[in-house]
Specification:
With 569 residues, the chain is of the alpha/beta class. The chain folds into 4 domains: 169 residues, Rossmann fold (3-Layer(aba) Sandwich), CATH 3.40.50.300; 62 residues, Helicase, Ruva Protein, domain 3, CATH 1.10.8; 115 residues, Zinc Finger, Delta Prime, domain 3; 191 residues, no CATH class. The protein has 24 helices and 8 strands. α13 runs antiparallel to α17 and α14 runs antiparallel to α16. The two termini are 71 Å apart.
Length: 569
Amino acid sequence: MSYLVLARKLRPQTFDEIASQQHITDTLRKAITSGRISHAYLFCGTRGTGKTTTARVLAKALNCEKGPTAEPCLQCVNCKEIATSSSMDVIEIDAASNTGVDSIRDLRENVRYAPAGSRYKIYIIDEVHRLSGAAFDALLKTLEEPPAHVVFIFATTEPHSLPATILSRTQRYDFRRIPLADLIDSLTTAAQKENIRISDDALALIARKGDGSLRDALSIFEQALAYADDGITVELITSALGLVDFGTFFELTEAIYKRDLQSVLGFVDKLTESGADIGQFLGDFQTHLRNLLVTRSVPQPSRFLELSDQQVEMCHMQKDYFSESDLLRMSQAVSQLMQQLKDGAEPRTFLELTLLKLATADTTATLQQVLTKLSALTTQSKSAVVAPAVDLFSAKPAEPSPPSEKKTPVSNPETKTLTEAEAAQIVPNPTIDSTSPRSATWEGFLESYNHVNGLLSTMLRKGKAKFTGENTLQLIFPPDVGISAVLTADKLKQLENAMESHFSKPLRLKIETDKNMKATRSRTSLDPRFDVTPEDLLAQNPDIKDIVDRYDGKILSIKKVNSRGAGDG
């Protein structure tokens, strides 16, 4: 006997054996049991999901000598002839090679004759969407009023291509892509029937490459089997089929995250030497980026990932390597490369350039992340110990400095309740010696210092200033401002130097807090809860402007931020 491929050898023979289409098989069983048999069925779905197989099982159920029955016996003459495609009463037509009206005219002539030895004459028309318009017109009348002994079963991957007049005269059933777990189960059963040793990782790899199609998965399985001497492993599959092992994508992601350019170039060298299909690799890498994005974005990602438990855990380990915007940007770069390769770009060179670009690109930080961190700073409780430095312009927190390198914080003065006389001396805009050639106000200094340190300038505005001596400026703040967290010893020295340059005389700052004082607000605040336009934000806050310029960005909107730094909308 000639060799029979696994897809045909292991083809399901009953409704129970059809994988992952229970919503269809249960409906067909009930229809047969109740005697509600339609004259025309339409099976829709992607390739390899069981459309033609289900049509043949339905034909057995209708023409079994013990039927119509939901459980064909598989032993009678009719069941055996249908299984071997030799039944005279079950006619299979490939519409892709019989598109013309003449084939349908012959069908119209033959449907008038009774079945030779069965209960029904059944026409299975595969890829029915390939029929011409004239052929559909010729089929329409017969389909609308067929003889009682005729049943039509249409199969198609493109139901939207069928005329509405045909769709309205059929019972439509939509076949689903076969889930990864069901594909693995079917491949495991096939391996057991054929006495083939195969590792679990190899089964998972073949199932993923099947992409929801059992026929495709069995074809890959059989190809690997032809290459194997003693069992099937992941290494054998990747070598035989030019695929890339799933674990390799985690290694590449690690190299990109660490900016290890040598490892990235070494990966490309290994990939091209192995003869792997770069287009296939890019598609798989994009899927890997999508998996990381899903893992990062939803609380229970496993239900959206066609991965093993171990692979899901590996995704969790790398989900914080990149932000959502970084992953989307990387995926877009891969998509652009795929299009460039289709346009004839040299694969290796462009792959190297793209991966090096990903490995050297700066991580992005959204304005929301920056504002959240700013809000966290301003709500810190006053303390003599300064928290580890936070990089406001990076997607990840900065590493804390070693103890020996920590900056000495400004000693936090005791909270003091001012007397009425002391409060009367506070002026909102004190003036320095009007006879000075560089006479200026405190507000004027803050405006100029805003270009040096916008954050500190904004926080200084929350206090009130008064001069308590020739060279002393006292700043009084509400207790919730947290000025000590920002005004470190270095920042204080920098600020006093700037004041000396601005006012043309040395000045010493004295910081105090007043528990009865409420924080003041202004339009120049970085806090977006106030009426600040994107233009104002950039003009008044050079730190934010640096971010926008650095990433060639644009502020589209400013969201409100609550006390915890989360967006309100």
